[in-house]
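Lab notebook, design round three. We kept the backbone fixed and only want residue identities now. Task for the bench partner: fill in a sequence for the structure below.
Input C-alpha cells:
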C-alpha cells in the first residue's frame, strides 16, 4: 500500500509543477525568504526587511500567476503564447517588490493585505470571466474551498506529527534542537506542502463542472442550521438597536458597524452556499430567505452609513473608516442588484468586491490618499480656527484650547505614524527631510536596537513637530482612544529613570528580589516567604509581606516629593528626549529608592523606571513603573 501512495505523490508533484511552474517557483522563493527571516530573529534589520518584501511579493506573485493560469486554461490558450503571457504576469507581479516596503512605510502592510485579498478574489472567478455557467462557477469555488480546508487539516496534522517526532528525538537522544527548527518546519509545510497539495486539487475540466449538479448534504445542514440562525440573531439585535436609536434619537455607536458587517457576511455566505438548490421544489424557502435578507439589509445599510458618518464628521476619514464606507457602498449595490435583477448572477459578488478592493489600493481615490487628505485637512482647520495658519503654513498658535490642542496633537501623531513627514512638507516653513535625517542620526537612535529603532524614530519625529508647532503640552496617546474621550485633557508625560540602570549596590543586604511589572509574586526560600501584591495604579502603592511582617511602599508619594522640588529635579533633566515623554530625567539611584523597617526586616525598594502623565491640575494619571528590585536585610 505504501508504494502506490508514494507513486501517486510523485505523480501529483510532477503534475503540479508541469501545470503551475511559476506558482511553485513563487512558493519556493517565499518559503526560502521566510526561512531566512526566521533564522535572523531581528525583524528590523536590512536583510530581514528584504526578506519580508520577498515574502509579500512571492505571495502576490503566486496569486496573480494562478489567476492568469486559470484564465488562460479557460480560453484554451496553449503553446508559446501561454508561457509568454504567464511569464509577463509573473514579472509584473515581481516588480511589486520595488513598491512594497512595509518596514519603511507602514501603509504598505495595508496595501499588501488589499492586493492579497484582490488576488484571492481574482482566483475565484478568473476561469469564469468568459464562461457563462453559474453552476460551474459555484462548483469550482466549492471544490477549491474544500481543497483549501482539507489542505489546512492535513498540514496541521503533518506539522504536529513531525514536531512531536522532533521533540521525542530531542528527549530520547539528548540532541539540541533549536526552537527555530519548529518555526522552519511550519514554514516549509505551509509554504511547500500545503501550496502543492492545494494546487493539485484545482479543477481543470470546466465542462465537467458546468454539468455537475451534485450538492453536499452536509453543506445544506451547515447553512440551514448554523449560518442562517447566526445571521438571524444578528439581524434581530440590529433591528432592535435601530428601533432604540429612532426612539431615543441618538447617533449609533461605532461597534454597530461590526455587527452589520457580521450579519452581511453570514447572510451572503449562506445564500452563496445554498444557491445551486434554490430551484428545487423542497427548497422554495431559499428564495424567500434571500429576498428577505436583502430587504432587511436596506435599513441596516442606512444605519451603517450613519454610524460611519458620525465619526467621519467629527474625526475625519481614516483607513478603517474608508473601508467601512467602501463596504457600505458595495453592500448597497449588491442589495439593489439582488432585489431588482431576475438573473441573480452570483459572479457579481467576487468581481465587484475585487474591483472595489483594487480601487482602494493606489491612486487619489485610494484609502491611504483619502485618509491622508482628510487628516491633514483636519489639522490645518484646527490651526486656521486658532489663527495659526498663515499663507497655508502652520505656525505656533498664541493660544489654543485643550480640546483643539489634544485633537491637533493626536492627529499629528496619526499623520506621522502613517504617512511620515512627506504629507506635511507643504504646510511648514522648514525642510522636514533635513529634520528627519538629523533625528535619524541622534545618539538615542544610534543606541537603539534594530527591533525598536523605527518606533523610536517616529516618536522623535512626533515630539519634534509638537514642539515646533506649539503642541508640546498636549497628549498624543493612541488615536482611536481619543475618539472615545468626550472632554480631552492636556497632559504632560514624565519619565524618571535611574542613571545607572545596569548597576545596583546591594551591600549590607541579604537578599534581592528583582521584579519587572510587580505582578503577584510569591517566593519561598530557606524559610523566607515573600509575597508581593499587584501594584495599585490609583493609590500608587505596593504591598509586600515577608513571613509575618508586612509593609507598604508609596511610590506616588515619592514622585510627588520629587515634583515638589523642581530645582533639584531639573538638575537631572535630559534635553534630548528619545521616548514618548514630555519630561525625561536620569536620576541617581538614591532618589528612586524607598526604605521601610519592619519588626524583623529592613527592605529597600529600588525603582528602575517610573512613567506617568500629569494634567494641569497636577493630578497624576496612568502611573506605572518597572525594572525594579527589593533589597532585604534580616535583622
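Proposed sequence:
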Amino acid at each position: 500500500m505504501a508504494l502506490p501512495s508514494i507513486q501517486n505523490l510523485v505523480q501529483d508533484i510532477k503534475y503540479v509543477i508541469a501545470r503551475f511552474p511559476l506558482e511553485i517557483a513563487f512558493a519556493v522563493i517565499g518559503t526560502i525568504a521566510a526561512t531566512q527571516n526566521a533564522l535572523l530573529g531581528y525583524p528590523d534589520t536590512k536583510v530581514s526587511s528584504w526578506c519580508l518584501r520577498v515574502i509579500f511579493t512571492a505571495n502576490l506573485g503566486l496569486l496573480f500567476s494562478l489567476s492568469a493560469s486559470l484564465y488562460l486554461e479557460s480560453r484554451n490558450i496553449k503553446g508559446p503564447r501561454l508561457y509568454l503571457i504567464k511569464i509577463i504576469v509573473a514579472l509584473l507581479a515581481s516588480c511589486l517588490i520595488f513598491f512594497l516596503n512595509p518596514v519603511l512605510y507602514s501603509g504598505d502592510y495595508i496595501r499588501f493585505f488589499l492586493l492579497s485579498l484582490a488576488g484571492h478574489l481574482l482566483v475565484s472567478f478568473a476561469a469564469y470571466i468568459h464562461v457563462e455557467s453559474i453552476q460551474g462557477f459555484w462548483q469550482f469555488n466549492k471544490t477549491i474551498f474544500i481543497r483549501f480546508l482539507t489542505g489546512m487539516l492535513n498540514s496541521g496534522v503533518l506539522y504536529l506529527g513531525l514536531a512531536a517526532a522532533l521533540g521525542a528525538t530531542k528527549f530520547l537522544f539528548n540532541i539540541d534542537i533549536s526552537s527555530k527548527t519548529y518555526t522552519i518546519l511550519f514554514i516549509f509545510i505551509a509554504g511547500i506542502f500545503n501550496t502543492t497539495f492545494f494546487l493539485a486539487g484545482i479543477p481543470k475540466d470546466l465542462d465537467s463542472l458546468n454539468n455537475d449538479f451534485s450538492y453536499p448534504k452536509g453543506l445544506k445542514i451547515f447553512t440551514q442550521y448554523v449560518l442562517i440562525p447566526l445571521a438571524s440573531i444578528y439581524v434581530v439585535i440590529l433591528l432592535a438597536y435601530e428601533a432604540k436609536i429612532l426612539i431615543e434619537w441618538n447617533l449609533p455607536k461605532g461597534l454597530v458597524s461590526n455587527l452589520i458587517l457580521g450579519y452581511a457576511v453570514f447572510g451572503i455566505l449562506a445564500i452563496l452556499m445554498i444557491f445551486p438548490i434554490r430551484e428545487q421544489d423542497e427548497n422554495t424557502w431559499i428564495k424567500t430567505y434571500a429576498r428577505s435578507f436583502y430587504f432587511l439589509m436596506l435599513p441596516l445599510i442606512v444605519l451603517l452609513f450613519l454610524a460611519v458618518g458620525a465619526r467621519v464628521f467629527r474625526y475625519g476619514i481614516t483607513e478603517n473608516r474608508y473601508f467601512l464606507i467602501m463596504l457600505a457602498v458595495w453592500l448597497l449595490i449588491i442589495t439593489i442588484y439582488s432585489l431588482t435583477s431576475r438573473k441573480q448572477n452570483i459572479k457579481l459578488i467576487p468581481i465587484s468586491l475585487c474591483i472595489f478592493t483594487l480601487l482602494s489600493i493606489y491612486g487619489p481615490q485610494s484609502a491611504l490618499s483619502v485618509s491622508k487628505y482628510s487628516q491633514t485637512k483636519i489639522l490645518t482647520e484646527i490651526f486656521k480656527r486658532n489663527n495659526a495658519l498663515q499663507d497655508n503654513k502652520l505656525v505656533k498658535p498664541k493660544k489654543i484650547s485643550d480640546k483643539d490642542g489634544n485633537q491637533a496633537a493626536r492627529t499629528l501623531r496619526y499623520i506621522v505614524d502613517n504617512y511620515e513627514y512627506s504629507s506635511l512638507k507643504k504646510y511648514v516653513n522648514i525642510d522636514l527631510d533635513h529634520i528627519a535625517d538629523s533625528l535619524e542620526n541622534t545618539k538615542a537612535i544610534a543606541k537603539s536596537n534594530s527591533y525598536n529603532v523605527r518606533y523610536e524614530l517616529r516618536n522623535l519625529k512626533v515630539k519634534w513637530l509638537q514642539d515646533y508647532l506649539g503642541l508640546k503640552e498636549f497628549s498624543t496617546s493612541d488615536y482611536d482612544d481619543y475618539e472615545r474621550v468626550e472632554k480631552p485633557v492636556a497632559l504632560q508625560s514624565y519619565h524618571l529613570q535611574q542613571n545607572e540602570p545596569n548597576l545596583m549596590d546591594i551591600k549590607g543586604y541579604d537578599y534581592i528580589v528583582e521584579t519587572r511589572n510587580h505582578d503577584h509574586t510569591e517566593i519561598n526560600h530557606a524559610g523566607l516567604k515573600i509575597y508581593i501584591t499587584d501594584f495599585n495604579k490609583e493609590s500608587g502603592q505596593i504591598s509586600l509581606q515577608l513571613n509575618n511582617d508586612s509593609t507598604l511602599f508609596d511610590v506616588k508619594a515619592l514622585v510627588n516629593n520629587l515634583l515638589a522640588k523642581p530645582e533639584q529635579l531639573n538638575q537631572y533633566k535630559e534635553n534630548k528626549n528619545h521616548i514618548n515623554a514630555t519630561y525625561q530625567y536620569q536620576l541617581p539611584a538614591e532618589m528612586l529608592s524607598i526604605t521601610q523597617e519592619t519588626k524583623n526586616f529592613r527592605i529597600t525598594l529600588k525603582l528602575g523606571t517610573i512613567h506617568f502623565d500629569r494634567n494641569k491640575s497636577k493630578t497624576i494619571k496612568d502611573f506605572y513603573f518597572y525594572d525594579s528590585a527589593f533589597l532585604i536585610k534580616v535583622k
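Keep this in mind before ordering anything: DSSP finds 21 helices and 14 strands in the chain.
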